[in-house]
Amino acid sequence: MKLSLPCLNSPQAMPKTGRPRSIAAEHYPVLVKLAHAQPYSSQAELALVFFAETGITAHPDTFAKALKMAGITRVKQRAKGSFQSPEPNKSYGYNETHRRQLPEQLYPSCLTDTEWALVADLFESQGGRGVPPLHSRRTLLEACCYVVRTGCSWRMLPRDFPHWDNVYKTFRRWSAQGKFEQMHDRLRAQWREREERADSPSAAILDSQSTRSSPQGGDSGYDAGKKVKGRKRSLIVDTLGLLLAVSICSGSIT
């Protein structure tokens, strides 16, 4: 008996394996019809409509492949006209405009000509009597601003400023005269005018914080509410958050 073996390249020798496709070629016209009927639908929405039409469910990847085989491609919608995002408000926050250093500023903490013009009359002495000052009032004020801004000690002032002893004595004298408070009140009133508010605030907010202090830190007390022994600092601000007053006292004072 002679046996005949099929050729290895014949279809009988290579049976088709795998399960049949859930979305066959006969379903492609249905996909095309649904895509034309709902051109702005997403793939998930088309899958739901296709299930309602044929009762066939498929994996998202399988459904995407079937759409591709049916000749349906996704086209990104182009925006009509030209749209430009609004430019951010340059005056909001601390940005490059504030970080720049003008030629008249020796250090970033120094005053600009515009800033000095706002407060020059508070620090310039009235009248021409006495010995002319060795250093200008603006230079002394900029030295005080450098110490406040950097937090360095008076003896560590750069040599670009007057001698530290001269700056320190000037700072103490101006503090006793209330010049810094006058400068602060003037700038706060100007800012409130920019915000269309009255010069003097009609309401204020008070908040305090108790901190531990060393024995050399002055008077201290025990804050029974916060369970802290030390000193208490209190701040009063207006409704815009601008400072009105500062108070430092013993922690036991309420």
TrEMBL record:
GO terms for biological process: DNA transposition. The lineage of its organism: Bacteria, Pseudomonadati, Pseudomonadota, Gammaproteobacteria, Pseudomonadales. Pfam families: DDE_Tnp_1, DUF4096. NCBIfam families: transpos_IS5_3. Residues 1-20, 193-226 are annotated as: Disordered. It comes from Pseudomonas amygdali pv. photiniae. InterPro entries: IS402-like_dom, Transposase_11. GO terms for molecular function: DNA binding; transposase activity. This is ISPsy19, transposase.
